[in-house]
């Protein structure tokens, strides 16, 4: 996610008095008192502690499940940015380290195109410390990945400005024709797009979730609030980051509409940049310079006007960083949500096959480990994985399993047709349609979405 304009960065630097600080905190107090329970309202010690305790209790209840069917499960993070993008300084070493810490086996990068670098050809690719890296780009409203083994040949036409700025359908046809993967991205900006030949679409995007949090955005534009809230982010790093999570109703409605026309693989977009935070650096004249997470100067304040800094100023000299915090470190962003792929082995070819076939599910793994989740259809001793097409038959039924008991919702063509609770799901099928499931968990007094499966497409005849 990207947050800019903390304090009108284009205006001259200004000095703030203690009165300014008091006024700022009063404004923030009024924001906190608003009735809408958004992410800002969740950033309170008692609420974060309650979420933390609920997650610990779920860990104690978690049970490992054997994977059903012929595939192994691999966790992937899609829509990841590094220092190859203009809005990130992330190194491949720290991104891979974060991936390993959260159990991710596949990183699919989506760098912002520029004239300085061909990200398909020169981007992050191959195995590094057991993590498979795949290069790609975020461009023209899509996430685009070249086919395995053909990165060099496909780059110029895919990333050329004539296609980046051209009609979306023309771009999708080009990528599809060259055997690349292409996903509709940031649906909130293009709900009216009707593009053929897509591999799939984002069904959740962290940045889009953040864009809905108007109160939190107001607060984060004031670096003084970040100073006040820093201890909460340090004590509850994941709970604080993931406080922005909402049910992506608008994304899912668009996805269901698309799947009624043709299969579309649903993926999670981590939109990871590690570019949100605050740095406070001492400068000459008893002043402190406030910088964003990428080191851009925001403004300066006299140190005497910031009481919260006084305890950490002792023995500090100009040039020293006296305060620094990252609000979106890669580890928290990658843990928040993942796309789990069912594949025979950890290779690019297997990744392509899984994503093109829809053998995948999305899980908010910060709540609980979703490893072992399964949703499939059975008929005449034949198993149909997520993403499959199958013919309606008298003995056709769905089955599902999860490593924790939760609330299951079976959804056909966008409508909930069955709700049940537990670790397993079983349901007979009597009508054609696109079927998917959701699993919800009780967290600190509210139900939260945990798992979103890809659909199984039941037809009167397979076409």
Could you explain the architecture of this structure?
Helix 4 packs across helix 14 (330-336). The chain has a 19-stranded mixed β-sheet that branches. Strands 12-11-10-13 form a four-stranded antiparallel β-sheet, with helices on one face. It is 29% helix and 31% strand. It contains 15 helices and 23 strands. The model is unreliable at 1-36 and 151-163 (pLDDT under 50). A hairpin with a 2-residue loop joins strand 3 and strand 4 (131-134).
Distance between the termini: 40 Å
Molecular shape: globular
Number of helices: 15
Beta-strand share of residues = 25-35%
Rg over alpha carbons = 23 Å
- The strand count comes to 23
Low-confidence parts lasting 5 or more residues at pLDDT below 50? Answer: 1-36, 151-163
What is the SS-derived class? alpha+beta
What's the mean pLDDT score?
88
Helical residues, percent? 25-40%
Sheet with the most strands?
19 strands, mixed
């Amino acid at each position: 996610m990207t947050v800019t304009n903390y304090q009108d960065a284009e205006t001259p630097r200004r000095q703030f008095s203690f009165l300014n600080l008091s006024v700022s905190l009063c404004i923030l107090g009024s924001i906190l008192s608003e009735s809408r329970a958004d992410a800002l309202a969740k950033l309170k010690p008692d609420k974060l502690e309650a979420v933390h305790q609920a997650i610990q209790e779920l860990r104690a209840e978690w049970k490992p499940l054997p994977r059903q069917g012929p595939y192994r499960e691999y966790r992937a993070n899609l829509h990841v940015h590094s220092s190859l993008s203009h809005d990130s300084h992330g190194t491949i070493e720290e991104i891979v380290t974060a991936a390993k810490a959260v159990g991710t086996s596949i990183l699919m990068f989506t760098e912002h195109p520029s004239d300085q670098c061909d990200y398909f050809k020169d981007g992050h690719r191959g195995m590094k410390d057991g993590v498979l890296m795949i290069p790609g780009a975020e461009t023209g409203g899509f996430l685009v990945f070249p086919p395995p083994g053909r990165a060099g040949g496909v780059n110029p036409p895919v990333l050329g400005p004539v296609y980046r700025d051209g009609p979306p359908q023309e771009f999708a046809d080009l990528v599809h024709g060259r055997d690349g993967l292409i996903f509709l991205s940031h649906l909130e900006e293009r709900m009216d797009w009707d593009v053929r030949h897509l591999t799939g679409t984002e069904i959740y995007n962290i940045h889009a979730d953040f864009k809905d949090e108007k109160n939190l955005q107001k607060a984060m534009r004031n670096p003084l609030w970040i100073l006040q809230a820093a201890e909460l982010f340090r004590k509850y790093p994941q709970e604080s980051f993931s406080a922005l999570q909402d049910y992506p109703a608008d994304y899912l409605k668009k996805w269901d509409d698309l799947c009624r026309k043709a299969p579309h693989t649903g993926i999670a977009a981590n939109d990871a940049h590690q570019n949100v935070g605050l740095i406070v650096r001492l400068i000459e004249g008893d002043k402190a310079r406030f910088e964003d997470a990428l080191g851009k100067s925001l403004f300066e304040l006299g140190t005497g006007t910031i009481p919260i800094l006084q305890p950490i100023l002792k023995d500090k000299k100009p040039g020293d960083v006296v305060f620094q915090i990252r609000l979106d470190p890669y580890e928290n962003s990658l843990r928040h949500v993942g796309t789990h792929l069912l594949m025979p082995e950890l290779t690019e070819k297997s990744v392509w096959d899984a994503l093109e076939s829809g053998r995948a599910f999305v899980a908010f793994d910060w709540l609980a480990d979703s490893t072992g989740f399964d949703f499939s259809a059975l008929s005449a001793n034949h198993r149909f994985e997520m993403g499959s097409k199958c013919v309606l038959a008298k003995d056709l039924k769905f089955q599902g399993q999860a490593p924790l008991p939760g609330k299951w919702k079976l959804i056909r063509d966008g409508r909930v047709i069955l709700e049940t609770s537990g670790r397993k799901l079983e349901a007979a099928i009597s009508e054609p349609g696109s079927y998917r499931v959701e699993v919800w968990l009780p967290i600190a007094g509210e139900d939260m979405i945990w798992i979103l499966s890809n659909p199984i497409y039941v037809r009167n005849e397979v076409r």
